[in-house]
Amino acid sequence: MKKKILIVTERRADFSRFKPIIDKINNDKKLDYLLIVTGIHLLKKYGLSINEIKKTGIKINQTFKMYSNVSIKNDDGANMVSAFGTAIINLSRILKKTKPDIVLSGFDISANFAVTVAAAHMNIPIAHIQGGEVSGTIDESIRHAMSKFSHYHLVSNKDAKQRLIKMGEEKSKIHIVGCPSIEALFNEKLLSNKVLEKKFGLSLEKKFIIVIQHSVTTELHNTKNQIKSTIDAIKKSKIQTLFICPNNDAGSTIIINAIKKSKNIFFTPTLTLSEYRSLLQKCFALVGNSSSGIHEASSFYKPVINIGSRQNGRLRSKNIIDVKHNKNEIFDVLIKLENKKFYNKLIKNLKNPYSLLNTSSKILKVLKRINLDQKLLQKRITY
């Protein structure tokens, strides 16, 4: 009988990491999957990205709403907590009904945190992707909490492994596999300029930048000023710009409204993996505070202007330029990148510390080896 792996996705970032794994499971004789779709995948405001999942042909086993019509308007920390509670209630019911052998959870995202907590209480083994990494905001606390609930750890690099060992996790249960979203992007086909121009309104004969800026949940009082600094710097530079919609973390509505009010800036609420891969490969630079700049951009030899504290402490390549939420700092780096000598030096001989070959295959190998016994469930700190 096949091992049944339950996976939950709630936004673009986690689906991009799960997709290559699901594709591999689909062709495996020993594993099967159950995919639960929730979160902003189901929200029109964020582009109804469930439709993009359906287009891939991947089977969706169940959906549920994390956010009510009222809660969508309440863009604050309390709303994030309420959505987390809704996710735990729904996922505990789904786990009880479906009885998966393993939960494959990811990263530091609300619904994946919820399924991790629920599964641990229901004696279902958990394998966690990309634990042990550090960053700013509440994400780091969630990520480390998920690691403590999890039984197997599928980390992206040696630094993350050492961090989990220091947290008291069992060395034999930690496996370095790389970041699956890199594999996911390179699995996608490269779209033509004509297709991209029609969809996003850009002129790809000119240089353009991609901006992904999320709210910093521990700095909500500064959100309006932070996005204003970015927009003002971009306008001053006069570089063609595509903004990608942020996550729905507390403060995201402030960012979305500021972008939509700005003239001569292109905006998209969501996009497919092939669209993102194509845009990333063709862009001049990536700007903002997205983990994509840390995890993926160096594999495409693109400079990254990393703004603010959201990615503090993350292992990074030399293509990352850190700046504060300051219009002049952001603008100065954009102008500096116009210098070909500086640009080329920044991206020369780049090595991505999150990139390993065959990440999804490595993950499947670990999933197959997991022994579903009582000893696995009874975790002990190692010191």
Main features:
single chain, 383 residues, alpha/beta, Rossmann fold, 2 domains, seven-stranded parallel sheet, six-stranded parallel sheet
Task: Write structural notes for this entry.
- This protein has 17 helices and 13 strands.
- β8, α10 and β9 form a beta-alpha-beta unit.
- The protein folds into 2 domains: 198 residues, 3-Layer(aba) Sandwich (Rossmann fold), CATH 3.40.50; 155 residues, Glycogen Phosphorylase B (Rossmann fold).
- The protein has a 7-stranded parallel sheet, with helices on both faces. It has a 6-stranded parallel sheet with strand order 10-9-8-11-12-13, sandwiched between helices.
- It is of the alpha/beta class and 383 residues long.
Short account of what is shown:
By secondary structure, the protein is an alpha/beta fold. The chain contains 17 helices and 13 strands.
Topology (elements, then pairings):
Layout: E1 3-9, H1 12-26, E2 31-37, H2 50-55, E3 62-63, H3 69-73, H4 77-98, E4 102-106, H5 110-121, E5 126-129, H6 137-149, E6 152-155, H7 158-166, E7 174-176, H8 180-186, H9 193-200, E8 208-212, H10 223-237, E9 240-244, H11 252-261, E10 266-268, H12 273-282, E11 285-288, H13 291-295, E12 304-307, E13 320-323, H14 327-336, H15 340-347, H16 359-369, H17 374-377
Helix pairs in contact: 1-8, 1-16, 4-5, 5-6, 10-11, 10-14
